[in-house]
Amino acid sequence: MPKLLIKNGRVLDPASGRDEAADVLIKGGLIVRIGPDLHATGAITFDAQGLVVAPGFIDMHVHLREPGFEHAETIETGAKAAAAGGFTSICAMPNTHPVNDDAAVTRYIVERGRRFAIVNVFPIGAITKDIAGEQLAAIGSMKAAGVVAISDDGQPVMNSRVMRRAMESAHSFGLPVIDHCEDLNLSAGGDMHEGLQSVRLGLRGIPASSEDVMVARDVILAETTGARFHVAHISSRRSVEIVARAKANKLPVTCEVTPHHLALSDCEMPPYDSNYKMKPPLRSAADTEALIEGVAAGVVDAIATDHAPHPGSEKMQEFEKCPFGIIGLETALAVTLEKLVHSGRVSLMRWVELFTTGPARALSLNRGRLEPGLPGDVTVFDPELAWTYDVNRSFSKSRNSPFHGRSFRGAQVATVVGGRVVWQRER
Amino acid sequence: MPVGLLGIEGLERSEIEAILNRAKYFQPPPHQSFGRHEFLKGRMIVNLFFEASTRTRTSFEIAAKRLGADAISITASGSSVSKGESLVDTLNTLVAMRPDAIVMRHAASGAPHFLARYLPLTPIINAGDGTHEHPTQALLDARTILDHRASLEGLRVAIIGDIAHSRVARSNIHLLAKFGASIVLCGPASLLPAELASIAPGVSLTYDIREAIRDADVVMMLRVQLERQHEAAFAASEYFQFYGLRLEHMDLIKPDAIVMHPGPINRGREISSEVADSQRSAILNQVENGVAVRMAVLERILVSHAETAH
Q1: Interface list for chain B against chain A, based on CB atoms closer than 8 Å
Q2: Known catalytic residue: B131?
């Protein structure tokens, strides 16, 4: 059995509160021991001197585009980008072609993940057949095949009755419901956040209220059905308030925020640059501030990238014709370190939580902790390393990033999955 | 001047003044046609219109020809765009034929800005992009106002109608604000987003047309753009009653105030026939100034571009 010994790092583990110089020994794919001055004969040694060693980071919201849109991304390339971003586990949204709305598709994704992905791939099943918002998908059998949640991400369930039934069903199978909260009537035709910038640029707006009313609806339905409800890519001040209130009322409501919604506001988009076009849109600076406060106050549970690859042919068009979404796996750590930790808004420990115990709890994954017996997934990073992101060197098949050419302080250095170093920064 | 002309918002006041002064030089004497010049002899200008237009396209064409340039007009329906070619590829193809400038109208806001990023060497002149800007319209409107007033500073200008979807309004707001005019915007609530008040200095909003035009020096009426209405944002049946400009309003504006409209006008929808054809109406002056202003713009961009290109 191969052994990996990660030596001399600063071990940061939110679950146990551990923050000290220690070594981590992984054997047979599992964590064996954490402690000072470990030795293991025959072990491969990784010297983490000057680096932080944390539980493997989990991105609970990515689009891998396979099956169906392999020109934009595959499970293999998306997983490589994830590893290069410091992630050891990713959760794949179901809006593929075919949609992941039954066990056969789920099994296909799980199987492709096992064969081709260098990180763990957890599928998320659809809420409704074909994400059409009408008939429930085969939720129970998808769960049996391996989905960790259900979501109609990108094509939200507008019919509240269908959402109610979905929550009842998900609750009975012990799955959380992740909703991309958007009232499609309020947002119809919109291309960017509704505000001064959209008015200036003559682009149709997506009001923050289109998110807020659906977050409120889903919180109410979660309360009446008992389901666990998770808000995908929360972006507005009012939505954060609604989630905070739900949490204060002890409801099983969680939420995630993307790095780009924390780091960018609508004012920062170069005019009509489609690499800044996503859903939900970049909101106002006041919303961005509310998201950071939400993270600091513990309202936000996780950071998730919403990695959404699109080929250049689709993004190089008139702004209103371009699809929504940006890639984000390789920049997530650096963008959020800068915005949250280096700015002094949250501690490094809290930041690690957002990538580990936070998403693990929202999805009931038995991961995200450095604990003997758990899978040997580790993320090694350097909070100070200076580097510049070159999207043309990305492992993703797509190039749609607003962070191309940006210089950062702090970066992932190595990614360990099941005791194997699957990616390491060139040094 | 930067390469091309994408909008008024990014223009310096001095640049606008230079264009307006030059346009005055190009204005023909009464009842005569525009003079022929050779300033752009040997130059080629492509008019690329992805959206229907009569006055803008024709006046750009006349302007180019009166300056001695060759002008070619292409409409989307007769081009390879209808075969599914992307905008970038269409422009790349045209650029390979070495025009000196491309005049473009497009239904998508920002289409010329997007192209300018990928084709930085060929000047692009925005002849109207979606619901964003229509810079030469604002320039010709300013020229028209200045034919009736000594300066734009301190003028009270009312703009009435579908402001949200109007590129004419946006360009005019930016231009007038740069010269210290006070601008009152008026229209149905859903076509008058509150954010407009912060788009430029000196802008205020009202839902009451009488309040908007009171003591105005200039009243600009906008066309009701039913083709840009994706939803019923107001009751079309009562539009004229609340936002249409009629003779009874003429007592509220200054005695020597002018009424403008970018055209095409919808008589009886946003403006009554009596007002459109009245002494106050400057609508045909606007059309006339369209040629003079576009001559000034083409000359300025092409001459300065050629001088700095090498």
Answers
A1: 9, 86-88, 106, 108-111, 113-114, 117-118, 129-133, 164, 167, 170, 193, 195-196, 198-199, 230-231
A2: no
Q: What is the CATH number of domain A3-52+376-385+404-424?
A: 2.30.40.10
The CATH fold of domain B13-133+287-308: Rossmann fold (3.40.50)
B280 as an active site residue: the answer is no
The strand pair at A378-388 and A407-417 is best described as antiparallel
Distances (CA, A) of B115 to A89, A192, A278, A363, B90: 39, 20, 21, 44, 10
Give the mean pLDDT of A228-239: 98
pLDDT band at B306 (very low <50, low <70, confident <90, very high): low
B54: confidence class by pLDDT, cuts 50, 70, 90: confident
Q: What is the residue extent of each domain of chain A?
A: 3-52+376-385+404-424, 56-363
Q: Which of A193, A198, A272 to mutate to test the interface with B (most CBs of B within 10 A)?
A: A272
CB-nearest partner of A321 from B9, B108, B117 = B108
- Which among B110, B167, B199 is the nearest to A196, CB-wise? B199
The verdict on a CB contact (< 8 Å) between B130 and A320 is yes
Measured distance CA(B115)–CA(A273) in Å, rounded: 11
The half-sphere exposure of B14 on its side-chain side, counting CA atoms within 13 A, is: 1
CA dihedral (A377, A383, A384, A390) in degrees, to 10, reads 60
Split at pLDDT 50, 70, 90, the class of B75 is confident
Structure tokens at B145: 């106002």
Q: B83 catalytic, yes or no?
A: yes
DSSP A338-357: IIIIITTSS-HHHHHHHHTH
| A56-363 fold | TIM Barrel (3.20.20)
Chain A residues within 8 A of B199 when measuring between CB atoms:
196, 199-200
**pLDDT of A130-159, one tens digit each?**
999 999 999 999 999 999 999 999 999 999
Tell whether A392 is within 8 A of chain B (Cβ): no
How far B165 CA lies from chain A's nearest CA (Å)?
A: 7
Mean of per-residue pLDDT scores for chain A: 97
Please check whether the domain covering B135-282 is classified as CATH 3.40.50.1370: yes
Report domain extents, chain B. Answer: 13-133+287-308, 135-282
Q: Is the confidence at residue B233, as pLDDT, over 80? A: no
Asked if B110's CB is within 8 angstroms of A271's CB, the reply is: yes
Inform me whether the pLDDT recorded for B1 exceeds 80: no
Whether residue B98 lies in the annotated active site: no
* pLDDT (mean) for B112-136: 94
Q: Look up residue B266 and give its two tokens.
A: 């919808």
Weakest-pLDDT range from A41-55, A173-187, B67-81, B165-179: B67-81
pTM of this prediction?
0.94
Q: How far is CA B208 from the centre of its chain?
A: 25
